[in-house]
Specification:
By secondary structure, this protein is α+β, with helices and mostly antiparallel strands. Helix content is 47%, strand content 15%.
Length: 250
């Protein structure tokens, strides 16, 4: 007997459910604003799955997964545990995570009309999920990122859901790229400040100029096979402690 799941109420209450026409344009604009308002890539992914359930006709659950060449898979965001289990293979059960995801390396959309049509030997049918609409978010030679909407009834996703899904994933991709760049820039600024502090400590400790201190830091990083950022943090942390040492000699 297929299991039943209850979907938690969405926090995006200002969005009309399954919009069409002018309402669709307004809904996508509102979704884009909320996606771009997120602080980190993880926040963007979590917002995207919640919004997908609100926007896509027929959607009851949604998740985002990353697939690497060689079938390595991890779930990045999900509306509920059923989606997480749907994406990930069961140990010892002989089930595949999703029977059609391999096609997404070459095509942007794959629909599963009925997971029980082939005998139900997959994770979807085992969880009572009959339909799936999978949309490619990102793809390169090694990695594929997929947003998938799920439903308990067969043939839940038609052309309207596919069309809205394509438009929505375009917004998600742009917002995700923006969040990633922001996070990288923030980390770069933090790293620069940390390395600057470590360089200053070495200048004072070793009585050398800034160029010599930075060179000493780089050489120690290579010698100890430690990232420059992590070594700098170690030096700064040691300097704030009692008599700790980071890089002793050049």
């Amino acid at each position: 007997m297929p299991k039943r799941f209850v979907v938690a109420a969405s926090e995006f209450t200002d969005l009309p459910r399954f919009p069409v026409g002018f309402e669709l344009a307004e809904a996508l604009t509102s979704a884009a604003r909320q996606l771009h308002a997120t602080g980190t890539p993880d926040d963007t992914l979590n917002a995207a799955v919640e919004l997908a359930v609100r926007l896509l006709p027929g959607a009851e659950h949604a998740g985002i997964s990353e697939i690497q060449r060689g079938s390595r898979l991890r779930t990045l965001a999900w509306t509920d545990e059923s989606v997480r289990f749907a994406a990930e293979p069961r140990h010892g059960g002989g089930r595949e995570p999703h029977p059609d995801w391999e096609q997404l390396w070459t095509t942007p959309v794959v629909r599963t009309d009925d997971s029980e049509a082939d005998g139900g030997n997959n994770a979807l049918s085992g969880l009572g999920l009959r339909s799936a609409l999978s949309l490619r978010l990102r793809a390169d030679r090694r990695r594929l990122t997929v947003l998938t909407a799920y439903a308990r009834k067969p043939q839940a996703f038609g052309e309207d859901a596919t069309r809205i899904g394509r438009l929505f994933t375009a917004h998600v991709s742009i917002a995700l790229d923006s969040a990633t760049v922001r996070e990288q820039l923030t980390e770069a600024m933090r790293t620069r400040d940390l390395i600057g502090q470590a360089t200053g400590i070495l200048m004072e400790r070793l009585d050398i100029d800034a160029a010599g201190a930075f060179d000493s830091l780089v050489k120690a990083s290579q010698r100890e096979n430690v990232k420059l950022r992590d070594l700098a943090r170690r030096i700064v942390d040691a300097n704030t402690g009692a008599g700790g040492r980071g890089v002793g000699e050049r």
